[in-house]
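Hi U.,

Before I forget, here's the chain from the pilot set. I'm dumping it here mostly so it's searchable later in email.
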Amino acid sequence: MTITAVGQRDYPVVQAAAFLIALLTVASTFLTDLTYAALDPRVRKGQKA
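Structure:
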């Protein structure tokens, strides 16, 4: 759908697709960070080196 929208210059669909991809990337990175902090006891919030 996104590729078709690019070919047809349907900018709202392209913008929505780009937004969703960015949102999924940020969400997955955030969940990975939380999981990593929960599994590795050496990583803690606010800890100074």
